[in-house]
Amino acid sequence: ASAANAYSAANPESQALHERARQVMPGGNTRTVLYYDPFPLVMVSGSGCRLEDADGHTYVDFLGEFTAGLYGHSDPLIAEAIGKAVANGINLGSHGRQEAAFAEAIKERYPSMELLRFTNSGTEANMLALALAKHATGRGKVMVFEGAYHGGTLTFPASEVPVNLPHDYVFSRFNEIEATREAIRDTGTDLACVIVEPMMGAGGCIPGDPAFLRMLSEETKAAGALLVFDEVMTSRLSPGGLQSELEIRPDLTTLGKYIGGGMSFGAFGGRADVMSHFDPSKAGSLPHAGTFNNNALTMAAGLAGLTGRFTPAAARELNERGDLLRRRINAVMSEAGAGIVVSGIGSLMNIHPVETEPRQPADLAAADQRMRDLFFFDLLEDGFYIARRGLMALSLPIGDAECDALVEAVSRRAPRWAALGG
Ligand code: PLP
After folding, report:
1. Does residue 229 have its Cβ closer than 6 Å to ligand 1?
2. Would the CA dihedral through 363, 369, 372, 376 be positive or negative?
3. Is residue 250 lining ligand 1, measured as CB closer than 6 Å?
4. Which cofactor does it need (predicted)?
């Protein structure tokens, strides 16, 4: 209670804004993930990797808009591209000049996406990929993994009451090779597709075992089903996503987050024969509507970011920085005997109050939410903004100084975390 009082005393303007929002939105909220007790902070401005809240406190942004903020805040190149699109009339009710160029830039990075389409979000991209897989195969079942997150209407943690699309789901467990192989074979000719994140993101930054992911590729092929890689979060982990690192060519891929340059974005694409079901020049094709699918701001921002900022060299440097940061934090935690691990790959990571790295979300069932809250509020107090669930995503403006400062803060706090967690 005293910690909550101190938090209220330090953040009166955020509290007032929250109270106001509660009058017009349930719980004052329009993105469930942003809610926390006693009230969430309201950020009012950002620049590079810095944020300022409504009460004037500043933070280093280690959340990076839940991975979509890869370019940092108001990158000048992206801001200029958006400015030009605004000056040009924003959306013109037609195809635009930059659409094909943006699609080409994506296809160059993701050769498996022979043809692709844009959506407004990663959720929509996944909805369309699943609908397409069912249509293209003429089959009804969709395999998903327990604890997976494929968007607001495709969410599979056991702890949640989902608001999900009513597909005929077959559940299996992430990284369990033999059980999953068997489930695919058992489902046989009813299986339309398997959808998988090559690293579970919201599930806790849990990397897929390459052997597990390769098995999915082989078994879906043998079953005549499609493999859908949800790379909405993992696309930043190399210039061409995890599929290029793993050398796996999924039938369909979905993208989102940073690829839109910080604007609303999603895309799905894959095998030309499958994607051609959306070709409106063909009789009986599938419709795919969406007023803002090709919105000019996203096309401009996304193209500028991918071609001018997130170059292959920048992608490698960012992910090396993340690997190093994760190793350093894990070394500090282990030395302090804190019973805390940081999982992830490259620029994406999650702090967990558990002894060993999770291999599937069930391994985190015993994690103590109070410990997660403790890191979150302690780091906030030290001027670092991460997700309350422990997710961190590096952005391009984060440099050595910011990483050093975070490691220093963690080193200072770790003995107390060890004492409280043990
Ligand atoms: N798929 C994955 C793996 C995600 O992490 C997310 C978002 O966090 C989504 C899909 C949904 O994307 P959006 O929030 O743009 O709808």
Report:
1. no
2. positive
3. no
4. pyridoxal 5'-phosphate
Confidence of residue 314 (pLDDT cuts 50, 70, 90): very high
Cβ–Cβ < 8 Å for 172, 206: no
Phi, psi of 34 (to 5 degrees): -85, -5
Catalogue all structural domains in the chain, each as residue range(s) with its CATH number.
41-73+312-421 (3.90.1150.10), 76-308 (3.40.640.10)
Beta bridge partners of 385: 61
- From the CB of 236, is ligand 1 less than 6 Å away? no
Share the mean pLDDT of the chain: 97
Could you tell me if 208 and 200 are in contact, meaning their C-beta atoms sit under 8 angstroms apart? yes
What residues form DSSP beta bridges with 168? 141
ipTM of the complex: 0.99
Test site for ligand 1: of 33, 65, 150, 292, most ligand atoms within 8 A of the Cβ: 150
